[in-house]
Amino acid sequence: MRTPKQARGKQTKEKIITAAFELFSEKGYNGTSSNEIASKAGVAIGSFYSYFKDKKQLFIEVLNNYYDNISKISFSRTIDDINNFDDFIYSSIHLALKAHEYYPRFHREVSIMELSDNDICNLVLEHEKIKFESFKELVEPYKDIFKFDNLEEALFLIYNTIENTVHIIAFSQTTVNKTVLIDELITMIKKYISV
């Protein structure tokens, strides 16, 4: 596969990626063909295959772009933005919610692909590790308030509790009051670490 060096080639590749992102979000991976992607991007199918070996390679590139964008949202705060640990937890939950609002239909498709394709599953796991490491770095200034013998596991539990609750809020049809659910999540985390 060629790597575009000129502006025109880069634009062509970007058009293919953008078209694929929209179609995968709208019709799903299995419901979208390479021909449809090329057509939506306004390029010949030969151009598609000069940049991507197949549809799966393109999906992986789209997925990497997607994770880059949601990571920018999830970790778009600095230490200067946070006054105390309460602010940190509140900010973590609300930024996770904001990240899940970024193309939720594509996120659903990723969840489907994760269950059916080992390469996608491994890629998702790798991105989750990166997100968890970023979370730990942001927690670093508050580590003295944690009284756990197993800090790594405790932070893993907190991180995944936030992620899973946000998934429920963003993607399920639950009738639970979402504002109350977030408040209870914050209370639960604070009690867990005994702040």
Automatic annotation (TrEMBL):
Give the UniProt keywords, A-Z. Answer: DNA-binding
Checking Pfam families in the record gives:
TetR_N
State the protein's name: Uncharacterized protein
Q: Which InterPro entries match?
A: Homeodomain-like_sf, HTH-type_Tx_Regulator, HTH_TetR
Q: Which PANTHER family match?
A: ACREF/ENVCD OPERON REPRESSOR-RELATED (PTHR43479), ACREF_ENVCD OPERON REPRESSOR-RELATED (PTHR43479:SF11)
Instruction: Tell me where on the tree of life, at the top rank, the source sits.
Output: Bacteria
- GO MF entries: DNA binding
State the organism of origin. Answer: Clostridium felsineum
Q: Could you list the residue ranges forming a coiled coil in this record?
A: none
